[in-house]
Structures are given as structure tokens and as C-alpha cells.
From TrEMBL:
Keywords associated with the record: Membrane, Transmembrane, Transmembrane helix
Protein name as catalogued: FecR domain-containing protein
Domain FecR protein, residue spans: 177-271
PANTHER family: PERIPLASMIC SIGNAL SENSOR AND SIGMA FACTOR ACTIVATOR FECR-RELATED, PROTEIN FECR
Highest taxon listed in the record's lineage: Bacteria
Domain Protein FecR C-terminal: from-to ranges: 315-384
Keyword Metal-binding: no
Transmembrane segments: 81-99
Lineage summary: Bacteria, Pseudomonadati, Bacteroidota, Bacteroidia, Bacteroidales
Length: 388
């Protein structure tokens, strides 16, 4: 779309003279989603044109800039990093000279070439006999010694709608999908339930459901759209707890390297049960249950679901997330090790949205530009410190 000259000028001031603007004025301006989109597009054009004095463009450059913004179609990175993060960080990190640091950032030092596993659609299927099948974006039929009719679709992933046992004796036979670091995969279970699997996730499930319930076992993070069947409740077994549903959409985050298990309900209804003390919590849409495996404490909050389920749509959404929590997500996706050279930076807070297909170096560069955090990449290790 076309933007008015006043909005383009104000966006330019935000990108180059943020410290001179009134925080309230910026916050009110940013409530318009079109303004956020303008900032996104303007910053991208600014990078491409390599304009040093962005606030003092000549008329010819301004005309070219407007045309570039109007022609640009794909969104790369929302500039909530540039504004919302800067607003938060003024209070959290006492940033006064963000723009100067932006201009003086040493890109050659920050963006080091590394060898990492490329993120993408990939996983490993482990059949009932232990046989392993590498999964990717390809269409094929998969059969094992006990199971047949498993279809792998290049777009929708693994599908068990037509799967059955070679010799069906009525007993449940389980398969497992293991998603590695930097991986993502989709699964359709025998009952039609759809599952999106995040990186570093294992899910164990029956080839066909038998008995009075539908049970799966999860380690990691997954988003479920459960097919409704009132006669057979759907149960997700976790480490020390479980989630029971009839038909709903929800996200579970239960990584072994974190003490908290997060259950976030998008629609429908679920019941979270702590196996230790049998405590039960009923969730309504928009609510999240957080259970701490160390303290045994369960807490329930109303949350913005986007930040907890956007990963399945290819985005990271961070809302006042600490640097430590953010880096754990990047670690699972980009196959990196994180070393903090200054412990205090772990508590720094960020707010922004990034494309999960974005190169890690670009992500780190953007974070560094809007904060007092510095990154140094050596091979697969990212060293994090406070800017001096």
C-alpha cells in the first residue's frame, strides 16, 4: 500500500533519532498495524540502499524510497524489534544511544561464517521393530514388519489414516517420530488428529488406536488439533503429568531441559493433571497452565496465544521474553551452543517477531542493534556478553 509522507518521515525518525522522540507518541503510533508494516519495509529498504543519513534524504532519494516500499511484497522482519523492543529496553536496559550503536556496529565481527545443521522439514520415524526411516519433504509409502499403509506426504507429513497392522491381534503397536535440532514435522494420527512437532521433540503413538482412550507420549513441543470422539478421550502423557481432551486445539511445551511444562489452549477444553498429587486444572480458551516439576506448583494465566503457537506457522514471537529463554529457543532451532560471558544479560527482556527461516547471523545482528547485548560466533558456539 501507499503511505503518507508524514508516516514515512516519522518512521524514519524512529529508525534514526529514537532517543529524541516522546515514548508515548511512539507507542500510540505503533498501535496501528500498518505503521508496524511500514517500519518493517522501510528498514529493509534502508539496508538495501545503504543510506547512512536516513533522516536527511534528498527528494530524489525519498521518491525512490517510497517506490521501493510500495513495490515490496514479502514481509521479512517486523520492526517491533526496532520500536517495541527499544521501548522495553529503555526501561529494562537503560538504552540511551541505540541508534549510535546501530551505526557503529561491527558487522564483520558479529556475522561470522559457521557450520550448522540447516533448519527445515526433517525427522526420523522409528517403527515397531526399531527400524529407522529418515523423513523429509517427499511422497512415499512406508511399511515395516508389523505395520503397513503409512503415507509420507511432501506437504502434510506423515499420515496414518490408512495404516494397519500386518497381523492384527488387538494389541497396541507403537511408532515414534524423533525431530532433531533444527527440525520440524507434521503428523496425522489414525483418528485424524493432526500434530505439529517442533525441534528436539519425540512423540510415541499407536499405529491404530485400541481400547477406551487415545494415548500418546510426548517429550518436547507439539501443537495438537484433536479429532473429537466423546467415547475415547485423547490423552497426552508427559513426564509426571498428562493432558486430557475430547476435541480441541492446544500446544504443549515439555522439554526435558526445562523445569516447566506449558499447556496452552487455543480452543475447546482440556484438563491438566499432575500425576504426583493428582491435582487437576481445567483450562478455557486463551488460558495457559504452567506446572513446575521441581516445586510441583501449578499456575494458570490468560495469555496471548500467538507467542506460544506461532512456531508451527514458521515464526518466533517474543513478548517480553528474557534473553536466556529466547536463546534456548534459538539453540534448538539453529543447532548452537550458548555461552554467557556476562550472567546479568540473561535477564534482559525482548519483544519482537522473526521468521524462523531467517539466517541466525541476521537474527543476532537485529537483536544486537536494539539492545546492549553483543554476540560473537565461533563455529557452533555463540558467546553472549554485555556491550561495553
Amino acid at each position: 500500500m501507499r503511505y503518507c509522507d508524514e508516516d514515512i518521515e516519522f518512521a524514519g525518525q524512529i529508525l534514526t533519532n529514537r532517543e529524541e522522540l516522546d515514548d508515548t507518541a511512539v507507542e500510540l503510533w505503533m498501535k496501528d498495524k500498518e505503521h508496524v508494516r511500514l517500519l518493517d519495509e522501510l528498514a529493509t529498504v534502508r539496508e538495501r540502499l545503504a543510506v547512512e543519513e536516513f533522516g536527511h534524504l534528498e527528494m530524489e532519494e525519498l521518491t525512490r524510497l517510497k517506490q521501493s516500499v510500495a513495490d515490496r511484497r514479502s514481509r521479512r522482519m517486523t520492526l517491533r524489534w526496532s520500536v517495541a523492543a527499544s521501548i522495553v529496553l529503555i526501561a529494562a536496559l537503560f538504552i540511551g544511544r541505540m541508534v549510535d550503536e546501530w551505526r557503529n556496529l561491527d558487522e564483520e565481527r558479529l556475522i561470522a561464517q559457521t557450520e550448522r545443521i540447516a533448519p527445515g522439514v526433517k525427522a526420523e520415524l522409528i517403527l515397531a521393530t526399531g527400524e529407522k526411516v529418515c523423513l523429509g519433504q517427499k511422497s512415499e509409502m512406508i511399511a515395516g514388519k508389523k505395520e503397513i499403509g503409512i503415507r509420507n506426504d511432501s506437504l502434510t507429513g506423515l499420515d496414518y489414516a490408512m495404516a494397519k497392522m500386518q497381523n492384527d491381534d488387538g494389541e497396541a503397536v507403537f511408532n515414534m517420530i524423533r525431530v532433531p535440532i533444527g527440525g520440524f514435522y507434521q503428523l496425522t494420527l489414525a483418528d485424524g488428529t493432526r500434530v505439529w512437532l517442533n525441534s528436539m521433540t519425540d512423540i510415541r503413538y499407536p499405529v491404530t488406536f485400541t481400547g477406551e482412550s487415545r494415548e500418546v507420549y510426548l517429550k518436547g513441543e507439539a501443537y495438537f488439533e484433536v479429532s473429537k470422539d466423546t467415547s475415547k478421550p485423547f490423552i497426552v502423557r508427559l513426564n509426571g503429568s498428562k493432558v486430557t481432551v475430547l476435541g480441541t486445539s492446544f500446544n504443549i511445551k515439555a522439554y526435558e531441559d526445562e523445569n516447566n511444562i506449558y499447556t496452552s489452549l487455543v480452543q475447546g477444553a482440556v484438563r491438566f493433571t499432575n500425576d504426583g498429587n493428582r491435582e487437576q486444572v481445567e483450562l478455557k480458551p486463551g488460558m495457559q497452565c504452567i506446572w513446575n516439576s521441581v516445586s510441583g506448583k501449578t499456575e494458570v494465566y490468560e495469555v496471548d496465544m500467538e507467542q506460544f503457537v506461532s512456531w508451527k506457522d514458521g515464526r518466533f514471537v517474543f513478548e517480553l521474553i528474557t534473553l536466556d529463554a529466547m536463546m534456548r529457543q534459538l539453540k534448538r532451532w539453529y543447532d548452537i551452543d550458548v555461552v554467557y560471558q556476562d550472567e546479568k544479560v540473561k535477564t534482559y527482556e525482548f519483544w519482537g517477531t522473526i521468521d524462523r527461516n531467517m539466517d541466525l547471523n541476521k537474527v543476532l545482528s537485529i537483536v544486537a542493534k536494539v539492545s546492549k547485548v553483543a554476540f560473537e560466533v565461533q563455529g557452533k558456539t555463540v558467546f553472549v556478553s554485555a556491550k561495553k
